[in-house]
């Protein structure tokens, strides 16, 4: 059983154990914060080297840990660059891949962007070198790169999830912030994801907090839109096929609540849900547990629904005797898109690729 730590971190749980846990975690966040600021000062003062890879680099990252919805954004940017005839490659750390060649994010990106190479290496400088020298990339998209300071980037895009924008207001481990909110000053553009999951007042508050520390940064709003229902290996159904279906929801992502919201927006009824740890590999033991869980629901469900990131690991069109489908998510920009267009044009003009 996976422990849900969010009610502890966000203050929803008020029992003595939760209060004591928050207190201990708050003390633990102090040395973490010192370490983050010390490391950043080293890069800003030149004590640590920043390496250029010879082509423009756009970093897509965030301030918090967990799923802010970067994958649809990386896909969107990669398609924009490919449509301009630019050879683009994605580089990332490859968190959670273990002994495998690629993690679940890379497998999903490969399925969605088969013509865009993705190099995973904890040393992103080396990954960028391979992308440029061996794959002849003209632009690098660095996935989850905001905290990775060693590879020089020409543009920093910071993604903020509207449903949990500032990690409960505390640094790790007390909250979900990887670094203080004030460090958003390094961003060239802030992109707010899942805007349709919150009201206009909440969005205005997020933008106000960002502009309080970085008044000049452009902000672009976006939604995650369910486009199709995928079935392994390559079948697609209309997303409307989920309407009024009774489903079991299965995921191993950083923000399961947002996924549940998406399923309900598609008109499906969630009978039961199971949220596994982010990047879970779906081992044989886990698969056996999931099958048993699905079988206990019997005829009360019509199908099982997961994310694309889960489907590329499960690799089946059925599980526990029920059809398995994955919701494919695309990025939809809301309102003024020009700041993102300007950022792309500025990046390409630096190497005369536009």
TrEMBL record:
It catalyses: a lipid A disaccharide + ATP = a lipid IVA + ADP + H(+). One of its GO terms (biological process) is lipid A biosynthetic process. Pathway: Glycolipid biosynthesis; lipid IV(A) biosynthesis; lipid IV(A) from (3R)-3-hydroxytetradecanoyl-[acyl-carrier-protein] and UDP-N-acetyl-alpha-D-glucosamine: step 6/6. GO terms for cellular component: plasma membrane. Its EC number is 2.7.1.130. InterPro entries: LpxK (IPR003758), P-loop_NTPase (IPR027417). Pfam families: LpxK. Keywords: ATP-binding, Kinase, Lipid A biosynthesis, Lipid biosynthesis, Lipid metabolism, Nucleotide-binding, Transferase. ATP binds at residues 64-71. One of its GO terms (molecular function) is ATP binding. Transfers the gamma-phosphate of ATP to the 4'-position of a tetraacyldisaccharide 1-phosphate intermediate (termed DS-1-P) to form tetraacyldisaccharide 1,4'-bis-phosphate (lipid IVA). Belongs to the LpxK family. PANTHER family: TETRAACYLDISACCHARIDE 4'-KINASE, TETRAACYLDISACCHARIDE 4'-KINASE, MITOCHONDRIAL-RELATED. NCBIfam families: lpxK. This is Tetraacyldisaccharide 4'-kinase.
